[in-house]
Amino acid sequence: MNAENRRREIGEILARSDRPVSASALASRFSVSRQIIVGDIAIMRASGADISATPRGYVSGSYY
Q: Which of 64, 62, 53 is nearest to 21 (CA)?
């Protein structure tokens, strides 16, 4: 899976989730390192995605 597809799927997972999703859980789901996920989230946020970091994981803006 390329990075663009992974980021799209991360966005979909966060949008559907009713609770925070940890970077470790996402890393396991996509078989990449936690740091790759952290970087993906940073790129997504810089591109305008409404993603917030909480102590328990990432949430999309629709979570609130």
A: 53
